[in-house]
Write a structure and sequence with these properties.
Heat Shock Protein 90
Length: 341
């Protein structure tokens, strides 16, 4: 049931509950064949109280929430309680008694009923309104998160594409075979980015294929490309992760790392015990003065923000830098499987 429907039908649920509790509390009287007393309470008193409850729930409570002419609303509420006492008197006059003193007593006793149920009506409406606003706020936050995630992903794509085109251009005029192979790999990468990576989560297997294509594209630049060691362990099928969550770390390894037979870039992804472990390590090269002055980019900060949104307490990211090496360890806990998507 939606919050709107709950707000509309809450009084009916409340009074059904009230009647059931009243019957249960007086079950002994019913068993003793004195149901007429219970019946009169249900037929006379509860409808009178239900009117007051509904008037304050549907009419007065929303006026108080708007905080406009609150003094006038209070005066009208008090006037309602005094005037509605006459309704009690008229009902009992035609239903049960013509005794003047008894009717006078009923008039004043009606104040207690009215005050009680006007308070309950306002309190219930206040609770539902608070819950509705809370749900609306959560939905707005969820939409804001989705919007920001989309913007963050949009920041990744041009950044990656710019680097990749530069890589292809570096050997385009020297080796047509490499160029053709690189274009095929780039087309596979672009297909993935356009049609697969536009959601919040993608299959890990497809992300791994994307990483493999990315690495193959980079390897084409080097004569001895065995320095790239990429390994995957564990069962990777039917697992969903955020798209392109690992690529910025791998990009940085190529951008700032040494590349040679003795300077290995190690990339390992393992799946075990409902956790995904990503490790990437490279030897650091000496940056030129101009490179040191360049902006480090948005990649790592981007990933941190995405992880904070998607896994508020379900990830560990450790960045370790020494004089000679740089390593990244990312652990994603409680990943989603296709069963829950």
């Amino acid at each position: 049931m939606t919050i709107r429907k709950l707000r509309l039908f809450a009084p009916a649920f409340f009074w059904i509950f009230q009647i059931l509790v009243h019957i249960i509390r007086n079950i002994y009287v019913i068993v003793s064949d004195s149901f007429s007393i219970i019946f009169s309470n249900i037929i006379i008193i509860y409808p009178l109280d239900a009117v007051t409850f509904s008037v304050f729930y549907y009419y007065f409570a929303p006026l108080f929430f708007k905080k406009k002419n609150i003094q006038v609303n209070i005066i009208f509420s008090i006037a309602y309680i005094f005037l509605y006492g006459f309704v009690w008197v008229m009902v009992y006059y035609f239903w049960q008694t013509h005794d003047h003193n008894e009717l006078k007593s009923l008039y004043f006793s009606s104040f207690g009923h009215s005050l009680n149920y006007c308070f309950l009506g306002v309190l219930m409406r206040l609770g539902i309104e608070w819950f509705e606003k809370r749900e609306t706020q959560k939905e707005l936050e969820k939409q804001n998160i989705k919007t920001e995630l989309a913007l963050l992903r949009a920041q990744i794509n041009p950044h990656f594409l710019f680097n990749t085109l530069n890589n292809i251009n570096s050997f385009a005029t020297q080796n047509s075979e490499k160029t053709s192979y690189a274009i095929i790999k780039l087309s596979e990468i672009m297909r993935y980015m356009l049609y697969e990576a536009n959601g919040e989560k993608v299959l890990l297997d497809k992300e791994l294929q994307y990483i493999y294509n990315f690495l193959e594209l980079h390897k084409l630049r080097y004569k001895h490309n065995s320095f790239v060691q990429f390994s995957v362990s564990g069962t990777t099928s039917n697992i969903f992760i955020p798209p392109m969550i690992f690529i910025p770390f791998i990009e940085n390894a190529f951008k700032h790392g040494k590349k040679g037979p003795k300077d290995v870039i190690e990339i390992n992804i393992s799946v075990r015990n409902k956790e995904i472990d990503f490790n990437c390590q490279n030897n650091k090269r000496q940056l030129s003065e101009s490179e040191k002055k360049l902006d480090k980019g948005i990649g790592i900060q981007n990933i941190k923000r995405r992880l904070e949104y998607l896994y508020p307490q379900g990830f560990v990211l450790d960045l370790l830098e020494t004089d000679t090496t740089y390593s990244v360890h990312l652990k994603i806990k409680n990943y989603e499987s296709s069963v829950f998507i």
